[in-house]
Design a protein that fits this description.
alpha/beta, D-Maltodextrin-Binding Protein, domain 2, 2 domains, globular
Length: 415
């Protein structure tokens, strides 16, 4: 399937090369765009489209829907009916690039973009030194942070963690606070108040703080069985077994979780609407390990269809999205942005409403989320998922889980 897909798409690549040489036209042009999913597509994306059309009266945007997420998009690409621009999930980008489903736009970047003006959030679009998209939606420079229920901390007489990187809790401090703030008031074995919550499916977000990723930089090996990774898995298991709330959204809906590891997008959609005035809340950096508090950079990019008849006009939209105007439209909706002049504007960093200070998403170091995902052509072995499931059920220790995961990954990486 993949070989046939790559050959089919390769035939389309002949068209944009000629169009690129001709440059953009002043004649009216319509480009079709799929704006991705969820709240972003329904709100911010439409505002960007409206502003883009005003700034480019000769380019009209036609919205196109995709059913079936990434698989549905690939079907449309093979069928030659996919839009000119589409959003791709970051973890799917290695496949899209390797199978020729994303136009190489390096020449446009070199012509129009000064990379120094942006936060280093290119991991999902930069492969082997070539650009294949523009970071558009997601967590930004540091995707996850610790959301704090300040009322719970105040009632316990404990100072809430602050927003700066140097304020980050260590794994040991996070564990101890989770223990102290998990309270079973009636003694029935089920706490009425939980110390913390993190999604076990996002366990890899904690590795960089201990100076390690799931895979090496060239994806030739896994680092999951290193002492640094095992230490993180051990902390996560201990927290999960005793002090981890059963549901991600209890923090917002039940107001009974003290510290919740959330992604950046909850600031713009979800947390404010669900919390309202139930309690006061803020954000703090991800827990710190041997490398300090280190975030993960993860942005879902807009990609240009290799078979587009209008590459210059499609690039004009991506360039507008990355411009001051486009980035401010995103920032006004509390979206993650990558242009430094907007991302670091005090207007968007220091707020008069919760979460008050956005530095947990902007300050300190970050590594790219792509090094936590399998490379193109490699599917996650079932043995990895099985080991993780047993880890969270407290059936095996972290070291055993790490060894089983490493063996499974090495077997498929060798192939």
């Amino acid at each position: 399937m993949r070989k046939w897909l790559a050959i089919t798409v390769a035939l389309f690549l002949l068209v944009p090369a000629a169009a690129l040489a001709q440059g953009a036209s002043n004649d009216p042009v319509t480009i079709r765009i799929w704006g991705g999913w969820g709240h972003f597509r329904e709100t911010t994306f439409l505002k960007v489209v409206e502003a883009f059309e005003k700034a480019h009266p000769n380019i009209k945007v036609e919205l196109q829907e995709i059913n079936g997420d990434m698989e549905g998009l690939q079907v449309q690409l093979v069928g030659g009916v996919a839009p000119d621009i589409y959003m791709v999930r970051a973890e799917s980008m290695p496949v899209f690039v390797s199978e020729g489903l994303a136009l190489d736009i390096t020449e446009y970047y070199e012509r129009d973009i000064n990379l120094d003006d942006y936060l280093p959030a290119w991991g999902s679009v930069l492969f082997n030194g070539r650009f294949y998209g523009a970071p558009a939606e997601g967590g930004g420079y540091r995707e996850d942070a610790m959301f704090i229920n300040r009322n719970i901390f105040n009632e316990a007489g404990i100072v809430a963690p602050g927003p700066n990187v140097e304020d980050a809790l260590t794994f040991a401090e996070w564990f101890e606070l989770a223990r102290r703030l998990t309270i079973d008031r009636d003694g029935d074995g089920t706490p009425e108040q939980w110390g913390t919550h993190f999604r076990t499916t996002r366990w890899y977000f904690f590795l960089p703080s201990n100076g390690v990723n799931v895979f090496t930089d060239d994806w030739s090996d896994t680092l999951i069985d290193t002492p640094e990774a095992i230490e993180v898995l051990d902390w996560l298991q201990r927290i999960h077994v005793s002090y981890n709330a059963p549901d991600t959204y209890w923090f917002e809906n039940r107001a009974n979780v003290a510290m919740n590891i959330y992604w950046r997008a909850r600031v713009s959609a979800g947390a404010p609407e669900n919390i309202q005035d139930k309690f006061d809340w803020s954000v703090a950096p991800m827990p710190a390990g041997k490398a300090g508090s280190v975030g993960l950079t993860k942005m879902n990019p807009f990609v240009i269809n290799p078979s587009t008849q209008h590459p210059e006009e499609a690039w004009a939209f991506l360039r507008f999205f990355l411009s001051e105007t486009g980035q401010r439209i995103n920032a006004d909706d509390d979206r993650a942005i990558v242009l430094k002049s907007v991302a670091l504007d005090p207007k968007y960093v220091f707020l008069e409403r919760p979460p008050y200070n956005m530095m947990p998403f902007l300050g300190g170091d970050a590594v790219d989320a792509m090094l936590q995902f399998e490379p193109a052509g490699v599917r996650r072995p079932q043995a990895v998922s099985d080991a993780l499931n047993r880890l969270w059920r407290n059936q095996i220790p972290a070291a055993t889980a790490a060894r089983q995961m490493a063996e499974a990954w090495r077997n498929v990486l060798k192939k």
